[in-house]
Design a protein that fits this description.
single chain, 2 domains, Rna Polymerase Sigma Factor, Chain: A, mainly alpha, Butyryl-CoA Dehydrogenase, subunit A, domain 3
Amino acid sequence: MPLQLSLQQQSFLPSEEKTQIERAQQDPRYFAPLYERYHDAIFRYVYRRVDDEEQAYDITSCVFVKALQSLHKFEYRGLPFGAWLFRIAKSELYQSFRDQKAQRTVSLDKVVLKQVIEEWTEDYTEEDKARLLLALKSLKDQQLQLVEMRFFEKRSFKEIGDICGLSENNAKVKTFRAVLKLKEFFHQKE
């Protein structure tokens, strides 16, 4: 799902964001508007992957603490500040999974799940749903993340690339390959 911005946030142009970042780098008190702008999106991103509200709040807090601690290293290169935060969130999620504080989950929208299955088979059944869930579990973490961001979160390839540190084209290619693997596994289990 693309970042949904309020009218106030839409007026927060990249040049304004750059200025805000520079101010926050000089004085951490100016980090608050950046935190307010991105907190909900980062929380949703984390929550969809751990499916535990308390754990999601903990991880989200770690993301912003690390961002604030590393803000002096951030260099504005034309990418949204949010892309940098999503990379920190991704790193914190994986650290949490390694520490086994959280279990990796896939948050599925039933409507999207049905749409994906209907592309591959004529009649949608509960067995198809179970096969797709099994196929999703067969994907590597990065492949699963790409499929989630593209189909369940409705992110553009540019956003996916920014979050994953890939070019837009590379995000398309890797997502396409992940979908092919998913489709192959789905049909293999028929």
